[in-house]
Each structure stands twice: as structure tokens, then as C-alpha cells.
Write a structure and sequence with these properties.
Strand content: 5-15%
Structural class: mainly alpha
Low-confidence stretches: none
Mean pLDDT: 96
Number of helices: 14
CATH architecture of the largest domain: 3-Layer(aba) Sandwich
Shape: elongated
CATH class of the largest domain: Alpha Beta
Bound molecules: tryptophanyl-5'AMP
Number of strands: 5
Largest sheet: 3 strands, parallel
Distance between the termini: 23 Å
Radius of gyration: 22 Å
Helix content: 55-70%
Oligomer: single chain
Amino acid sequence: MSTYLSGIQPSGMQHLGNYFGAIRGHIEAQREGGEHFYFIADYHALTTSRDPEALRERVRETAITYLALGLDPERATLFRHSDVPEVCELAWLLACVTGMGLLERAHSYKDKKAKGIQATVGLFTYPVLMAADILAYESDRVPVGTDQLQHVEMAQDMAGYFNHAYGEVFRRPEPVLPEEGRFARVVGLDGEKMSKSNENGIWIFESGKPLAKRIGRIVTDSRAPAEPKDPEELLPFCFLELFLDSDELEDWRARTREGGEGAPGYGHMKARIVEAVEETFAPARVRREELLADPGEVDRILARGAEKARAIAVGVRDRALAACGLRNPLPR
Ligand code: TYM
């Protein structure tokens, strides 16, 4: 039986990259059998957050996002990272079998450092905590966007180092990427990877004027609508491709290639993107409002999730401690 696990940082509202790259797949996977664990990575958020009140709010907002988009707490376990402190113990055990070289190769650390984000020890060792997150629940399937692939591969490596040293304790996890590339790496308003730190995101729940204004920032050139263009080179198409069915998409592409009077301008494309975002998330926006009005229910769901997740992590932690000599061997 498969166990799915994934995490998401509570760094503000979630964007279309988080949705198409991860959350949508997490919610669809509920229909399959197996166990499902999704957590809000608040320990990880401390690598950049310094505002306690904002962090608490963002954890809540992220939980509400999952629930509003359709995560069913009866089928999937939703919980807060820091409610399972055993992952920090496991992270230490993994750190002690992992060479510095592995972490020095992490793209995400190198990118953040290049952007001037202060390189704390926490930021550097982040992949070790992430490996502990994955291994603590005996997960074998980790659905993520492409940007997290290297981290999941590092978790495979760390599980291997530990098992090699102390015997089979950890199950080997496999990354699961969205099948189509446009979902696995969603681009942002500037054509770079959509990311919270790039400030190029489109928020799932934004609507009305602020949404139209944001979509207006999608980078385009000054060519007239009638000029024939290659849709593959136009950024607005990256967004249309996320939402439109293949017939409608082909129609937009054909008219753009052809040019002339029937060709859409960038304004038309952007208006269609606004409409698609509004439509796609309208039911979830309503559920979000209901959940915002019932904070007790969100707290109860997170507490139940933590209880279930923690029971599993405690068992794995105990096995790992015994395997490396910090406890007596467990009875067989
Ligand atoms: P985070 O919060 O940056 O992103 C959450 C999920 O969204 C995916 N994603 C994207 N997918 C496609 N296109 C994009 N532009 C895009 N941006 C984000 C990410 O791949 C991810 O699946 N380190 C993780 C959180 C984490 C975790 C874990 C994930 C902590 N422990 C254990 C899996 C397993 C992170 O920062 O994700």
C-alpha cells in the first residue's frame, strides 16, 4: 500500500505554481487508496520568517487553502510540521550520516544565497529536515513540483546512508511529478519559475481588480494584435495552457499565428486568464470564506491530523534511535 506525503511552506498565500505543481495532485490522489499525509512546513518557514503572529496566520491560511480546494480530512491527514517534533530528532540522526558535499550541491540553497537571503545554518541544513519529514511517515510517494526533486533525491540518499550504517530502518521514497511539464514547473509573471521569493506569483484566491492588475503584469511586447505571432513565444500562453481545454486553446493559438483582424491582442489573452482564474477557484473561494469564519474547525482538523501523524513518526523515531545505539534494541 502506498503512503503519500508532501509538505508546503506557509509563506503567505499559495500561488498557481503550488496549486498545479502540488496541491491539485495531492487532492486528486485522495481518490486512490493508500495513506495520505500533507503538512504545513512551519519549522522550515523559520529559515526566513521573523514575525511570529504572521507565521501563525499563514499556517492557518495554508490549512484553509487545502481544505477549501477539496482536501478531505477523512481521507488525508493534514497537520502542522511542528506538531511532530520527532522530525527534528530524526534530522539530527540523518545529519550525522550525511556529508557536507551533498548539502553544498543543493540548488535551492545556492539560489537563495545568490538572491541575498541570509545563509543561516537552518537554510543550509534544510534538506536534512526535509528528508526527516519524508522518512518519518514511511512514505514511498512524494508528490512535488520539479523544484523539489533534488530534495527528494537527497532524502533517498540519506535514507541509504543511514540504512547502510545501521540496517534497514527507512523506506525509500520516490518523487512523483505532475505528468505534464507545464504543471511541474509553472512560470510566473516575468517568465521565471513562479515562486514566493521571486514575487512573480498569481494567488489562487485573488479576484476582481487586484487579480486583473496582477495579470496585467504578465510580460508582453508592443507588437500590434494583427501581426502574426508564434504562440509558443508568448508568455500569456503559458497561463492559458494551465486552464483552457485543448479545443479552445487551439483556437487561441491558430488566431494568434494567423494575425489579421480576428487575432487576439495581449489584452484579450489577459482578460481570458483573469476569467479562468476567477472561474476555476470560485467554489473554493466560497468554502474558504466559510472556513475563515470557523477557526475552531480548522484547529480541530489540524489537531486530529497531528495525533495520527505523530503516532507513526514516534514509531519510526524509536526504531532509528534503537538502530544507532541511543536506545536498547527493540524486541522483535
Ligand atoms: P514550497 O512551499 O516552495 O512549494 C510547495 C509545493 O509547490 C510546488 N511548487 C511548484 N510546482 C510547479 N511550479 C512552480 N512554480 C512551483 N512552485 C512551488 C513545490 O514543488 C512543492 O511541491 N521544501 C518544500 C516543502 C517541504 C516538503 C517536505 C515537500 C518540506 N518538507 C517534504 C515535500 C516533502 C517547499 O519549500 O515547498
